[in-house]
Amino acid sequence: xxxxxxxxxxxxxxxxxxxxxxxxxxxxxxxxxxxxxxxxxxxxxxxxxxxxxxxxxxxxxxxxxxxxxxxxxxxxxxxxxxxxxxxxxxxxxxxxxxxxxxxxxxxxxxxxxxxxxxxxxxxxxxxxxxxxxxxxxxxxxxxxxxxxxxxxxxxxxxxxxxxxxxxxxxxxxxxxxxxxxxxxxxxxxxxxxxxxxxxxxxxxxxxxxxxxxxxxxxxxxxxxxxxxxxxxxxxxxxxxxxxxxxxxxxxxxxxxxxxxxxxxxxxxxxxxxxxxxxxxxxxxxxxxxxxxxxxxxxxxxxxxxxxxxxxxxxxxxxxxxxxxxxxxxxxxxxxxxxxxxxxxxxxxxxxxxxxxxxxxxxxxxxxxxxxxxxxxxxxxxxxx
Length: 384
What we know:
By secondary structure, this protein is of the alpha+beta class. The chain is built from 13 helices and 19 strands. α7 packs across α11.
C-alpha cells in the first residue's frame, strides 16, 4: 500500500483528458492511516484527507485544468502527481481507458453496494497456505501462546434443567445425523451413477412447482430459500463415477440431468481447486455451489439479503452431507478453494454468478475408523 501525495492539462490528440471517480470506492482508518480502496479492483492506497476532496471533485468527468483552477493553493505539478497516483490505483478513471472486468456486473448489485459488494470481493481468492504440514505446525505454535477457544458456552451459576438424551429415539433419521462426519479418505471404487443422481436430486432437484398468481412459477426444493428464489446452482466435477465420463457438468435442477461443460477431471485438478487439500484428491466427485445473485436481488433490494444467499448455500450443503451419509457415501465440504480458478472453469464472472461453497464425496474406505482424521504416518510426516 503506497501513499498518495497531493500535487497542465494533458490531451490525447486534440481531445482534453478527463477524469472521473471510480464507482466502487470506500475509505476507512487502519493503523492510524486513512485508506482509500476500490473494492472491485482490490487496489488500495493510504492518503491524506485531501484525497477525499479530489475524489469528490471528480464526481463527474472533468479535466485536470478544472482541478488546478479550483485548488489554487496547490501547485499544478503536485495536483497532477496526485491524480496520476489515483489513476494508477484505479481510484480515478480516465475517459477512453478500458474499464476493469466486472464493473458492469457490480453496478447491477446497486442497493447491495457497498456493504455486500465489498464483503463479497474482499473475501475471494485468499492466499491459503499450500504446505499442510507448515500450516499445522503454525497452529501448534499458536495454541501455545493463545489457547484454542472453548467449543461450547456454559452458564454454571444458572438453574440447570437436564434433558432426555438427544438420540434416545432410535430411528433412521437420528442414525444419519449421528453418523455424519467429514471424510478425508476414500476407496478407489467408483461411485455409482444412481447414487450421484439421488444425491443431486434430493439436494438440488426441483421437487415441484408452485404457481404464484401474477408472478409465475417458483420451485420447491428440500432446503428452504428466501422468497423461494433458489439462487444456488450446482456444478459437478466427476472424476470416478461409474457410467459417467469424467468431466465438468452443470446439474439441471428442473430436468434432473447433467449438462457437460468440459471433458476430463483428475485428482490433481481437485487438489488445485481445493487450495492444495490433497486428502480430497481421491474423491469420486466434487460439487461447486454457485449463486446467481440476480434471483435474490430481484425481490430483496438491501444488502442483508447477501447473508441469506450464504446461509442457503449452508442449508444445501448440510442436506448434501446428510443425504450422502444416508446413501452410504463419504461426504465432505470445504470453504478453502481457489475462487477465480473455479469460476474460470465454470465460465462465470464471479460477480453476477460466483462460487460460494464446495462439497464432494467418494466411496467409503475399507478401514473407516480414522477416515476423517490424519493417520499416524501422516502425522509423523508433519515433523511435529
